[in-house]
Design a protein that fits this description.
Structural class: mainly beta
Shape: elongated
Number of strands: 10
Number of helices: 0
Mean pLDDT: 94
Order of helices and strands: EEEEEEEEEE
Low-confidence stretches: none
Strand content: over 45%
């Protein structure tokens, strides 16, 4: 599994807008995590991402499932949901170290 966090714009740098105003960029905080569960024929990888800046928060989560034909061939499918906003699907195929995915 993995867990990570990031902080952007730590020094809140100035940002000029198209209208000529200058305001400082607010800090942005992100948190991401996931876990890969390895099975005999299937690998399941749930994950999540959270991003907060000023009063805006986005949270996304999803899952990727790999079906293993053998040690070199895998078929993958996944779905992710971002709160109030979007759903994304993906499908792909892995051969040895080459992975082709479409979303």
């Amino acid at each position: 599994g993995y867990l990570g966090s990031s902080v952007y714009h730590i020094n809140t740098p100035p940002n000029e807008s198209f209208s000529g105003g200058i305001e400082n960029l607010p800090r942005r905080y992100s948190l991401q995590g996931g876990l890969k569960v390895i099975g005999e024929n299937f690998d399941i990888t749930p994950n999540m991402y959270s991003n907060t800046q000023a009063a805006n928060t986005n949270i996304a989560g999803g899952i990727l499932v790999d079906y293993k034909f053998d040690s070199d061939n895998k078929l993958s499918a996944g779905v992710w949901y971002r709160t109030k906003d979007a759903v994304a699907f993906c499908a792909g195929y892995t051969y040895t170290y080459f992975r082709l995915m479409y979303s």
